[in-house]
Amino acid sequence: MTNYLKEDAIRRVVFSELSKLDMPEQDAKYLVEGLLHSSMRGIDTHGIALLPTYLEELRGGRSRTKPNLQWQQPLPCCLKLDADGANGVVAASHAMLRAIEVASVYGVAVVSVRNSNHFAAASIYTHMAAERDMIGICLSNSDALVGLENGKEPFLGTNPIAMTASGAGGELFDLDFATSQVSYSKVRRHLNEGKPIPSGWAKDAEGNDTSCTNEFHALEALGGYKGQGIGFMVQILTSVLADTPFDNQLSHLYCEPYDSPRNIAHTMVVLSPAMFDPTNGSVDGFKSRLSGLMATAREQGDGVTLPGDKERQCKSARAQSGIPVSPEFYNWFLELSETN
Amino acid sequence: MTNYLKEDAIRRVVFSELSKLDMPEQDAKYLVEGLLHSSMRGIDTHGIALLPTYLEELRGGRSRTKPNLQWQQPLPCCLKLDADGANGVVAASHAMLRAIEVASVYGVAVVSVRNSNHFAAASIYTHMAAERDMIGICLSNSDALVGLENGKEPFLGTNPIAMTASGAGGELFDLDFATSQVSYSKVRRHLNEGKPIPSGWAKDAEGNDTSCTNEFHALEALGGYKGQGIGFMVQILTSVLADTPFDNQLSHLYCEPYDSPRNIAHTMVVLSPAMFDPTNGSVDGFKSRLSGLMATAREQGDGVTLPGDKERQCKSARAQSGIPVSPEFYNWFLELSETN
């Protein structure tokens, strides 16, 4: 049986718990709203399902409830944030909001974030930009899960890239992808259900393609060597730029103990489309062209689905139903509710 | 029998021909050096093999030998270039060099280019940045060859992305990929040789995977829906930003007549790693970390190949052998040589 939870119930209980942990109200808001944003849009692995782990990280000290965010801005459009071990959603929200602010004035902003933690879904932050008519781009490195071609051990993270941009009339281009062929959670679902893994998803300990769940050792990169290259690209633009550990030096999200910093790096890029408009210098042209492109793409076939379509449909459905959660999460949440 | 041509022979003959067409010497240099750069590194489809077509474009007026490049710089780091129908290599070289100049001062630069043409390989330009210790990123839209999931007609270009960054001791991270699973030229090679197309490369007129060369209708996106999303991302950051035709509205490179403008859009992004360095603010830390990452990756297995490795090996080999060319190209070049 699937249990459903309403947004407001989660908000109330989690805010209360975060307040007991002494997290500032605004940061708690970023954290809860970010996870709800993912869950409402159907990105269940990167939504409220992360709450038990995030709370363990805060309680154990792996992430700090009251980080001392240190900003440097050597030049107007170049920003660096040492997040002092903040929860990743908190760090990335601060970074993106500042990037938006700078890009609103200077047309472009790049923020390099170090000493952060797992930040849920990259699209949480790119949405913040799109809501303000900016193009938001977000990258992060992450612990190694993806194997190299001709390599045996996992070496690259699933290193996500997201980009969101607003069209006219509520249209949204909303891309958020991992640089692995599929996410680890998809493989794990096959592991849990005892189903064979489709070819091209996973490698065994010898680096060969495997469909056997108990031979799983590493994920396959998106489309082979190209995805491997994109994974490196993200790592270079995040951790190499910010001087933080390589993907294969990072501890794993779900590995206890929860008391050591992980030092994950993110990079936020925000562009103001109006500044690049060749004619009238307003954002309206860009928005209407983006909507036109997406409308034309939808005319190409009944089943054509564009980045963001499924998430929008899911959000509408879940506004009615609430967010479906596993029995384990439901019980965890009930317990948390009793103490808050 | 394979024929080989030496760089200097090509330089001499093509410069002379471009000078007859009244192209300014500096622009001719960009064009010839860009194509040689690709050919020497083994990117044969995006090197001197393009010369016959590029010369037809210049003779026919599709691209202009003496374009009136129009720059706008609404804010220090945001630049727009209307290339006035310049040859793509010329337009993109000007754009990247200006981006490097701006990023050297401001840390970041974004240049949106409109009204350009085919620009050969994106890595020609990202190399320019890496040679000056900057991170160079280059995107372009292109005529539609990639089919959408559940769509029948080609809708997206192979919309390339390249990023190059310099490490210490001559190390180079050098990624240049199309957002299709494979390039059209790879499929064409199978067509020419009458060999079946591997599964996952191409679609027939109904949008289904096909291995039959005479059923080829569109390329498959890199890794399926993710590559489709990346193709849209590139198009949005190039043509939607610059207000130029969508991929599926562009004429095809090899379609005569050569007298109508194509209006391709590129985007150059340059970052100064020094500006993002959290400690000493010099580029040395970034360079040494990048080399460290690549060295660690190479230790993962004997056959591990990183973006740029094959190209570097090819360049060494061709410095000795010259550039291998097809009999057709060789004859074309001999004829051109006689008149120059």
TrEMBL record, chains A, B:
<protein>
    <recommendedName>
        <fullName>Malate dehydrogenase</fullName>
    </recommendedName>
</protein>
<comment type="similarity">
    <text>Belongs to the LDH2/MDH2 oxidoreductase family.</text>
</comment>
<dbReference type="InterPro" id="IPR043144">
    <property type="entry name" value="Mal/L-sulf/L-lact_DH-like_ah"/>
</dbReference>
<dbReference type="GO" id="GO:0016491">
    <property type="term" value="F:oxidoreductase activity"/>
</dbReference>
<dbReference type="InterPro" id="IPR036111">
    <property type="entry name" value="Mal/L-sulfo/L-lacto_DH-like_sf"/>
</dbReference>
<dbReference type="InterPro" id="IPR003767">
    <property type="entry name" value="Malate/L-lactate_DH-like"/>
</dbReference>
<dbReference type="InterPro" id="IPR043143">
    <property type="entry name" value="Mal/L-sulf/L-lact_DH-like_NADP"/>
</dbReference>
<keyword id="KW-0560">Oxidoreductase</keyword>
<dbReference type="Pfam" id="PF02615">
    <property type="entry name" value="Ldh_2"/>
</dbReference>
